């Protein structure tokens, strides 16, 4: 087989098996991640020349030079996987390990699914109606944060007349302007960095700004300023829950600035959605979420940096559309959507989950249980 055909077969196989990721490295065959499990393809172990050929085929000369110089490269690509011209978009990272080239790619669905199609909390529709403030989607890598942000952006695109600017590294979902105008900027191609793009974006007449990831102090400072000056800012963080997300933002800043940042964050925060994607026994994945809204008691906790108090507010504020991750897992168990054994491995507090599922639960989560499952 020629390299081009083998590449097409590799990416086509990943799509057919509904894989989320592809891993390519020296000494092992190509490996797919399917429903969180690693599945090797029936292929001989790759030699250094094989991996180099794959990478040089996918990268431009400029990208390859940058990769070899920096030893890392984030990118997104579109690959034709069939004779009929069907193409699939991937985001990925090229890196070195033990002196050898390697790469990992994630498949990006072409269709941007809406909030209801993703079975996300219906309260996220309210975010798409906001005119200003900061909303965060958080969670581990590979648990759908970008997909959730894309669903919110698409709802704004379909329902409002706005100028939306996204800053991504790399660009993942490709939007088509509908009622809104959408400009997508990729770090390294359209701008030098997140912080540089955010410094300039306020001169581009945006209504909505989407930040692929808040990575550093300058990006966080610019995001807070943009939200404070009348823009809707949507962003992601690699944090497991709302309290840790607040702490992460505050801790990035030097101590002498934290009092001011606490006030800023308390004033501009709309809410935080933390999420996990849980693989189902029969295939596919189920989303579990934690949702916190910036009601007055939440804002007060942030101003006074009483971050541990946020959890109890979330637990007791179901009337405001809030729930903890463990409360959502308990709901999914009781609705028969997740088996207890699986859900419990994703719980933040297993004793709290057990109390809600098997013991005396709050009225919000009471009902015919699954005690027989234990």
Brief account:
It comes from Acetomicrobium mobile (strain ATCC BAA-54 / DSM 13181 / JCM 12221 / NGA) (Anaerobaculum mobile). With about 375 residues, the chain is an alpha/beta fold.
Task: Characterize the structure shown.
- About 35% of the residues lie in helices and about 25% in strands.
- With about 375 residues, it is of the alpha/beta class.
- It folds into 2 domains: about 5-110, Beta-Lactamase (2-Layer Sandwich); about 115-325, Rossmann fold, CATH 3.40.50.
- Helix 7 runs parallel beside helix 9 (about 255-270).
- The longest helix has 15 residues, at about 145-160.
- The model is unreliable at about 1-5 and about 360-374 (pLDDT under 50).
- It holds the Pfam family T2SSE.
- Belongs to the GSP E family.
Helix content: 25-40%
**Tally of individual domains:** 2
Shape: globular
CATH architecture of the largest domain: 3-Layer(aba) Sandwich
Strand content: 15-25%
Overall average residue pLDDT:
91
For this structure, what is the CATH homologous superfamily of the largest domain?
Answer: P-loop containing nucleotide triphosphate hydrolases
Taking the sheet with the most strands, its summary is: 7 strands, mixed
Number of strands: 13
Oligomer: single chain
Instruction: Find the CATH topology of the largest domain.
Output: Rossmann fold
Structural class: alpha/beta
Strand neighbour order, sheet with most strands? 9-8-10-11-7-12-13
Elements, N to C (H/E): HEEEHHEEEHEHEEHEHEHHEEHHHHH
Organism: Acetomicrobium mobile (strain ATCC BAA-54 / DSM 13181 / JCM 12221 / NGA)
GO molecular function, one term: ATP hydrolysis activity
Protein name: Pilus retraction protein PilT
InterPro entries: AAA+_ATPase, P-loop_NTPase, PilT/PilU, T2SS/T4SS_dom, T4SS_GSP_E_ATPase
């Amino acid at each position: 087989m020629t390299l081009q055909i083998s590449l097409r077969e590799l990416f086509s196989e990943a799509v057919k098996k509904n894989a989320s990721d592809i891993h390519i490295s020296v000494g092992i065959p190509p490996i797919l991640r399917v429903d969180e499990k690693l599945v090797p393809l029936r292929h001989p172990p790759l030699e250094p020349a094989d991996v180099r050929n794959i990478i040089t085929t996918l990268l431009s000369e400029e990208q390859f030079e940058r990769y070899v110089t920096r030893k890392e490269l984030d990118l997104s690509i579109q690959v034709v996987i069939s004779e009929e011209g069907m193409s699939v978009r991937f985001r990925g990272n090229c890196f070195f390990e033990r002196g050898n080239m390697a790469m990992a790619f994630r498949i990006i669905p072409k269709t941007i699914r809406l909030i209801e199609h993703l079975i996300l909390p219906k309260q996220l529709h309210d975010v798409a109606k906001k005119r200003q403030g900061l909303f965060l989607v958080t969670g581990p890598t590979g648990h759908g944060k970008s997909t959730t942000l894309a669903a919110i952006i698409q709802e704004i695109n379909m329902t409002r007349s706005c100028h939306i600017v996204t800053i991504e590294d790399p660009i993942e979902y490709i939007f088509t302007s509908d009622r809104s105008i959408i400009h997508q900027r990729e770090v390294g191609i359209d701008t030098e960095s997140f912080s540089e793009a955010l410094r300039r974006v306020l001169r581009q007449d945006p209504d909505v700004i989407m930040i692929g990831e808040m990575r550093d102090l300058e990006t966080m400072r610019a995001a807070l300023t943009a939200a404070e000056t009348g823009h809707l800012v949507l962003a992601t963080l690699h944090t497991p829950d709302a309290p840790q997300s607040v702490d992460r933002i505050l801790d990035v800043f030097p101590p002498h600035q934290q009092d001011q940042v606490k006030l800023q964050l308390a004033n501009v925060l709309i809410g935080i959605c933390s999420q996990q994607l849980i693989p189902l026994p029969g295939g596919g994945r189920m989303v579990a979420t934690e949702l916190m809204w910036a009601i007055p008691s939440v804002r007060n906790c942030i101003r006074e940096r009483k971050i541990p108090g946020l959890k109890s507010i979330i637990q007791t504020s179901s009337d405001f559309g809030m729930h903890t991750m463990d409360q959502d897992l308990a709901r999914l168990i009781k609705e028969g959507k997740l088996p207890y054994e699986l859900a419990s491995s994703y719980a933040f507090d297993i004793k709290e989950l057990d109390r809600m599922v098997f013991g005396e639960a709050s009225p919000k989560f009471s009902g015919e249980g699954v005690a027989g499952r234990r």
